[in-house]
Specification:
This protein is α+β, with helices and mostly antiparallel strands and 307 residues long. It folds into three domains: 1-129, Hect, E3 ligase catalytic domain fold, CATH 3.90.1750; 180-218; 227-287, no CATH class. The protein is 35% helix and 9% strand. The protein has seven helices and seven strands. The strands form three sheets. The protein has a three-stranded mixed sheet with strand order 3-6-7, with no helix packed on it. A two-stranded antiparallel sheet has the order 1-2. Strand 6 (253-257) and strand 7 (262-266) form a beta hairpin. The longest helix has 31 residues, at 185-215. It is globular and about 75 Å long. The relative contact order is 0.09.
Length: 307
């Protein structure tokens, strides 16, 4: 049985989302994935000597045209009698009666991706003459960092009326594969039993928490703020490559909570970063970089967003 790759599976889902929601071409998707190969690792060929180490036009096309990502097995995709194994039309494919392995996308999503390809072909055939020059592509610097708080999918950027937004996939993608449309009596009973178990566990944990609060009161530690990198930064003035390196260093993760209209930002301060900050503060304090005050941990010395 085929098993989803925990690392490359989300990349496959992101490829379908970019194809459907932004109607990007194969090469445009490849270029976007190649910006961050650590987050979007390229496919590895069966013969490793053939792997190119990056996403290409053909590798993106192979993903979008592979029906096995729906969870079904599909046969007769290639004509065995013709020279070169020419591809058969989709209506000649033979699908398994039931899913044979976990799917990464629904059949509806796969079908919609094929419709985008047909629309693009018709658009080029209707235009006739030379195509118009492409408009400069809008760069969304927080792409691949922002995830949806509801479904966990990566959000993509859109621009409307001069404003930049990060949005999630259509609502049809909120429902994972295999979910029941109508609850069964057995499921309802199990949910109620589990709810009772969780309530009992919560009550026990709350009692432990109260005991810990009484035994060891929390002590504020403002000195930890002095270990954080400080200084005002206007993110809009930084080059994209520099900004993304900065965000990667701190392992930025952003989760959008639509119900509360909040974005939770999480950064990771490692011992290596703290060491670099201490060296920087020592250099600043020695006067080598001009007269700059030492961070105190108060609010004005914290990293501030641009006005």
């Amino acid at each position: 049985m085929l098993v989803p790759d925990e690392v490359r599976g989300p990349v496959v889902q992101a490829i379908f989302e970019m194809r459907i929601d932004e109607r990007l071409g194969y090469q445009e998707i490849a270029d976007r994935l190649n910006v961050d190969l650590e987050r979007s690792p390229p496919p590895v060929a069966t013969a490793k000597s053939r792997s190119v180490g990056r996403w290409t036009y053909s590798s993106v096309r192979d993903v979008l045209c592979n029906p096995k990502y729906t969870g079904y097995m599909v046969w007769n995709r290639k004509a065995t009698s013709s020279a070169g194994g020419r591809s058969n039309p989709p209506e000649a494919w033979v699908w398994s009666g039931q899913p044979t392995h976990p799917g990464l996308v629904t059949i509806e999503v796969f079908t919609e991706a094929q419709r985008v390809a047909r629309d693009n072909v018709r658009s080029r055939s209707r235009s006739g003459g030379p195509s118009r020059p492409k408009k400069p592509r809008r760069v969304f610097v927080l792409r691949s960092y922002m995830t949806c708080g509801l479904c966990g999918r990566r959000m993509f950027g859109k621009q409307d009326s001069g404003h930049t937004y990060y949005v999630c996939s259509p609502k049809r993608a909120y429902l994972p594969n295999g979910n029941l449309k109508e609850p069964t009596p057995a499921l309802v009973q199990r949910v109620n039993e589990r709810a009772a178990e969780i309530a009992a566990d919560l009550k026990a944990e709350q009692a432990k928490f109260r005991e810990l609060q009484e035994a060891a009161p929390v002590r504020p530690a403002p000195e930890l703020l002095d270990l954080l990198p400080t200084g005002p930064v206007d993110l809009e003035l930084l080059p994209e490559a520099t900004l993304r390196r900065l965000l990667d260093v701190f392992g930025l993760k952003m989760h959008h909570d639509r119900e509360k209209s909040l974005v939770n930002c999480e950064v990771t301060i490692t011992s290596e970063i703290v060491g670099m900050q201490r060296v920087a503060n020592a250099v600043i304090g020695s006067g080598c970089a001009g007269s700059v005050g030492t961070p105190t941990g108060s609010a004005p010395d914290r990293l501030q967003p641009p006005p």
